[in-house]
Amino acid sequence: MSASKEAEKKKTDDNQLTKAGREVGKALARSSFQAEQTGRKIKKKVGETVSRMTGKATKIKSPFTEKGGIAVTETMGFLAGEIFDYLCQKGEMGTEQLVHTIMHRQNSSAMVYCAIGWLAREGKITFSSDGSLISLSEEC
């Protein structure tokens, strides 16, 4: 294979991996939103049932943070910012090494992967063709 064909194949692989990362990020954002909406519907139904059965209105505590705390999307946003800053300082690094480093700061692996998907969806990071290396995109 010529050097130009290899470079074109690498670019295609990078684009496909970045596109897959964006799709994962979108799916995670949709599922978080749907889970929050479902929780609110359940809260409303439980409140109505309790009111009907006891004859008095009761306030039910939501399983989701509405005030005073940080919502899941905000937490992911902060975590994505932390990952972005870390990559700015360290440059390209192994994906597993990045996840391991960020997890040591009291984060779950699921949240770290969600934040990576978020950054990929926004086009802020790119992956090597095999997905083992992660770096900031050239635009950043």
Q: Please state the CA-atom Rg, rounded to the nearest Å.
A: 21 Å
- Number of E strands: 3
CATH superfamily, called what? Winged helix-like DNA-binding domain superfamily/Winged helix DNA-binding domain
Q: Specify the structural class.
A: mainly alpha
Helix content: 55-70%
CATH architecture: Orthogonal Bundle
Shape, please? Answer: elongated
Q: Which regions have little confidence, pLDDT < 50, spanning 5+ residues? A: none
Spatial strand order of the main sheet: 1-3-2
SSE arrangement, N to C: HHEHHEE
Q: Could you name the CATH class?
A: Mainly Alpha
Number of helices: 4
Largest sheet: 3 strands, antiparallel
The CATH topology comes to Arc Repressor Mutant, subunit A
Mean of pLDDT:
78
Number of domains: 1
Summary of the model, kept short:
The protein is mostly helical and 140 residues long. It contains 4 helices and 3 strands. The model has no long low-confidence stretch (mean pLDDT 78).
